[in-house]
What does this fold into?
Amino acid sequence: MKNKAIACALSCAGLLGLGATASAQSTGWQPTLVVAEGKIRSPSDPVHLLLPPLPVTVLQNIALELDNVDVTGLVSTTDGRDAVFMPPQPLAYGEHSLRLVEHAADGRIIERGTWTLDVRKSALFRDASVQADITLNGSTRIADENLPKPTPSRNQANGAAQFKGALVSDRWRTEARMDLVGNSQRVQQADKLDLGQFLLTAETGPLVAQAGDQVVGPESLVMQNFNRRGVSAGVRSQGGSSVTAFAMRTSGLTGFNQGLGVGDEENRTEGVIATARPLADPEALVLWATYLTAEGPDQAGSPDSGIAGDTSATNGNA
It folds into this structure.
């Protein structure tokens, strides 16, 4: 790797045109990263380095690394001191390491300068993304004979859409996803455009909060396949341990009605889940404790589902 870097530096010496006086000091020198005041670095911005006057014997043995990859061959200059690296493709949003090293004659690698390039979209947030997946189906009828009354509409359409978005900064992260379903004809009591599932997530440090359709806690005899609409908040460590409190609707819920689904005291499940990973290998042993109190409609029927049966509420703790 060293020989490759030296060879690259040798081949780039002419390209760089870094002419320097023979009297320049070759020990203890340091380069300078030129940064425009107040400018936010974008993915395609060039990297500008200012070098002191250096002899050719030093210039032939310097190399520039970006994220531990030698990019010396992509450096150019217009005079003897201003070196510019132009990324061959836009850099990903986030932090990137930049390093300038000198390969000394005695085999040592001398680090002359290190920097962190923070690529972001604005001063407020680092990255923002939006994705949409939309499916639309349409049909038309060309004959009306022997149709039942009332006659369905001649032209019909239905479809679905899924939206995802994220906003990321240095100390916090927010994500959102939402499913929409539509039908030009009303199906039972559903609106022509209705909400499927959605989830909003906010993270800052060890704190995490979610609102929408979600799964809380591991599978256990207390909670099985419990994917419901509600809210949760908790704290988690880097080792995987966590404590989460939640309030969710006991029965399933779709559509825009009922909002987050936690306003009905007779159809709500509340609880706390604590998870611990006490061993050095976090996957070797996982311990958790779950406590919940719940109330909801009997499984025989629910007023919201339109299913006939006993709609009396049941409740209990676990």
Summary: Confidence is low (pLDDT under 50) at residues 1-25, 301-309. The radius of gyration is 31 Å. The CA atoms of residues 276 and 287 lie 5 Å apart. The helical segments are 2-16, 56-59.
